[in-house]
Amino acid sequence: MSRSTRFFTLPRLLWRLLIGLWTLSGEVQLGLVAAGVAFYSVFAIFPAIAALIAIFGLVADPEVIKAQLELMREIIPVEAYGLLTEQLNLMVSTRPETLGFATVMSTFVALFSARNGVASLILGLNQIYGRPNRNGVWQLLVAMLLTFSLIAIAVLAMLVVVVAPILLAVLPLGSGTGWALEAVRWIAAFGIVLAGLGVLYRFGPNMRGARGRWITPGAFLVILFWLLASAGFSYYLSNFGNYNEVYGSIGAVVALLMWLFISAWLVLLGAAINVVWARIVRSGTGISQGAIHPGPRPREIG
């Protein structure tokens, strides 16, 4: 293939990708599905944080979780960030210090409640991949396992943040130690999101046979788009819109719901990118219209 052909092919590939995403998003009603995911996530996010604190607090100081959330201060909308930190401080201050039956039961209840957000994501992924939903019991089990897996990933990443200062202390970094610690925190945050998306995209959809890759183009693009969208939404609320003035005492909840909607929409968009890109790759060149045809409409959620 000549250099000029490659030059003209890349824009055409990107155009086919955009057309495929537009078509697939309309077929599965991506915005409507993301709204449902965001609604369930509002009720799931605080139980998920409670479970994370309970599990991580058994092996390390949960204050590390607060420090990691601090990284998101400039990205998460102020109202949503304030609500999250308020609840996080309350949970950290009231957590049990020892592992007992009550702690185990409360952690299990928190995991069971948090699984609603993951379950709604699974339904959305099935829509995008055109797969039927699992039966009730199997769907519940998969949602619970994925919820626990995501929290376990977060715990492991937090442990890296805890161990990093000990390891860096023996290295002759001098004044660069602070910079190295900050880099470790960001790498851990990136690792949490990338690994979480890998687990969701690989095991969330009700696939038969071979599954997708652990690391996908959609996952990387989701992280990039999410950082930009979250920062943009935070800037908008800080300079042009004030949810507290419009919605009063529930302004923080509305801001959190809107931020969760943006996040859910982007996670589902990442799955759609993987689906459309896989069709383009299978087509060989990615030039033919058939490469991005959405195929039969998936079964509706419900």
Automatic annotation (TrEMBL):
One GO CC annotation, please? plasma membrane
Q: Name one Pfam family in it.
A: Virul_fac_BrkB
Record's superkingdom? Bacteria
Please classify the protein's predominant subcellular localization into one broad category: membrane
Transmembrane region(s): 7-25, 37-59, 140-171, 183-203, 215-237, 249-277
Q: Where in the cell is it found?
A: Cell membrane
For membrane topology, the record states: Multi-pass membrane protein
Keyword terms: Cell membrane, Membrane, Transmembrane, Transmembrane helix
Task: Indicate what this protein is called per its UniProt record.
Answer: Uncharacterized protein
